[in-house]
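Attaching the record inline, Q. Sequence:
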Amino acid sequence: MTWVFFALGAALSWGLYGPTLHKGQTMLGSPMKALLCVGVAYFLVGVLVPVISLGSQGDLKGFNTGGTLSAAGGGMLGAIGAVFIIFAFRAGGLPAYVMPLVFGGAPLVNVLVSMLMHPPKESPNPLLWAGYVLASVGAALVLYYKPA
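Structure, as predicted:
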């Protein structure tokens, strides 16, 4: 059950991500300066933390090609997502518009891709597809009725 706390920590972090990134981009006056800061932060957290953690456990060896490429691909997708968010802000999108689309659409993509990568043993419950419709309608409602 500990995983729930970590999942909530990710939700909190990513929920604050858009507004904080938008503020930084606005204050810096440049989306590329903001992306550079994101890259530095990714390096500090995504490289130094595991190097220190793995190094302290003597576990900085034993990487295999498949796992390394897959994990690096996931990291690239995360960084590319950050680039798309920055460009959405640059094109005039605000966090109240951009982030509901990102966080509303990401779970839909995730479930479809996960089912392709790990096909379910049984046909998905029809309510899954109802959930897709409701999530899409929900995103549309959030965008349409967002605060001015």
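Residues 131 and 137 are 10 Å apart (CA to CA). Residues 2-28 form the longest helix (27 residues).

More tomorrow.
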